[in-house]
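User: Sequence for Ig-like domain-containing protein below. Tokens please.
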Amino acid sequence: MEGDEVALACLISRILFAILGLVSFSILWAVNWRPWRIYSGTYQEEATEMRRTELDLTLEPIYSCHLGCFAA
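Assistant: Structure tokens for Ig-like domain-containing protein:
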């Protein structure tokens, strides 16, 4: 009996996943969300530069630290 319950749970999960996936894709398509537009061309280069700048600001304390920072 336990195997039947597991199979039923898997079936319900698969059906819900399929329905919710289709609904979310439809909503994204309806609002004209296209990932290939977001990550293409010039925008990608600008985004990469922006990410580098943010990363540099995040790591700046590490860059500016000299070996004396690690002395006990």
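The two ends are 64 Å apart (CA to CA).
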